Amino acid sequence: MIATTTGLFRPLLQLGLIPQILIGIVAGTLLAIFAPAIAGDVALLGQLFISALQAVAPILVFVLVAAAISAHRQGQPTHIRSVLVLYIVGTLIAALIAVAASFLFPTELSLNAEQVSGNPPGNIFQILQNLLLNAVANPVTALMEGNFIAILAWAVGLGLMLRQASETTRLALSDLSDAVSRIVALVIRIAPLGIFGLVAGTLAESGIEALLNYAQLLTVIVGCMLFVALVSNPLLVYIATRQNPYPLVFACLRGSAITAFFTRSSAANIPINLELCRRLKLDPDTYSISIPLGATINMCGAAITITVITLATTHTLGISVDFPTALLLCIVSALAACGVSGVAGGSLMLIPMAANLFGIPTEVAMQAVAIGFVISVVQDSTETALNSSTDVLFTAAACRAKETKTSA
If both were cysteines, with which of 182, 210, 215, 347 could 206 make a disulfide (CB 3.0 to 4.6 Å apart)? Predict the structure, then answer.
């Protein structure tokens, strides 16, 4: 019986991960349309998948960053500074593009959605304070709660201290890093089932009409992300490398963005990005640090989401926004995006902090967050795809720029 079942599914199992995920999306959509009651039940598969990603992602970032830094030897060349500059500039430009698009295509929301519970930060000073306090949080608590800023801070500190450790200790940490990466790879292998459950459950609960009601908002957000992926990011890569950026851009989109779109987790996509960097023949000493780091702080997609939904809320409420305030929103969005966890839905809970710049009450802002959750099946997937693929793109740009200067 088992052999017969395996034989029936063998052609499906022999397909690549992406075709399997596409089949899961189609199957989940059809199930939600024709059997919504059953679709609600299989949503458990999606919940298990997301929970597994959220559970393993903090440990993955911690051990990868600590192992990479501890393995680095004094005098080995890295290009981390250039990568960080690209991360910061790219996020600021993404927020500026989101502001421009929001002014060109003003969007109104129906602010009568059910409120979402949460404790968003109140203003820019509070977000700065929270970032500093989060950085020195208890490491065990940080791992349990997915506090990626603290995880990153402790991983960097531990990695620096372990540089003077014995070779055996550093090798053990490297082996632990490999083991956790393999666990994440196993979780990603069940992505087709998880995506099947997510799509079926989301469409059965909210309905396709819920996405259509916010089509303009979704179009502005996704349009900004596509513009960043295909125009502004390639421009930055060209400025850094003085070479045609599009072969590298499309390689990163194929190798990273597609998987990240379906897993909806920058942190869980780290092993995919590391493998892509290896195939691109980048400097291991650079990408072993920049990829886990980017999964935590490189959040250009999150900056777009925060900016667009916040300005849509102000337009709905009739609040006029001048350019200096919009520019401040760009900076706040970029700053807030750096503190967004590399897991699904992290950017939405920072919208009330940005909305506070315009005097919007938290109760109203949380209704905008609720709308964000309605469209998150597309918005969050696209955001993660942009974030994750940009990690590899900017790492590759920094490495190749340095190679060009060296050869010249």
Answer: 210
Side-chain-side CA neighbours of 310 within 13 Å: the count stands at: 34
- Identify which of 145, 398, 151, 174 has the alpha carbon closest to the alpha carbon of residue 297: 151
- Range with top average pLDDT, 114-118, 136-140, 194-198, 247-251: 247-251
* Per-residue buried b or exposed e for 309-330, using 16+ beta carbons within 10 Å of the residue's own CB: bbbbbbbbbeeebeeeebeebb
Give 230's DSSP letter. I
Query: Do residues 291 and 270 make contact, with C-beta atoms less than 8 angstroms apart?
Result: yes
Burial of 28 (0-12, 13-18, 19+ CB in 10 A): buried
**Distance of CA 163 to CAs 63, 76, 80, 118, Å?**
14, 13, 17, 40
Residue 394 has pLDDT above 90, yes or no: yes
C-alpha 302: how far from chain center: 7
Q: What is the 8-class DSSP label of residue 280?
A: T
Measured in degrees and rounded to the nearest 5, phi and psi for residue 35 equal -145, 70
The sign of the dihedral angle between the CA atoms of 351, 319, 375, 334 is negative
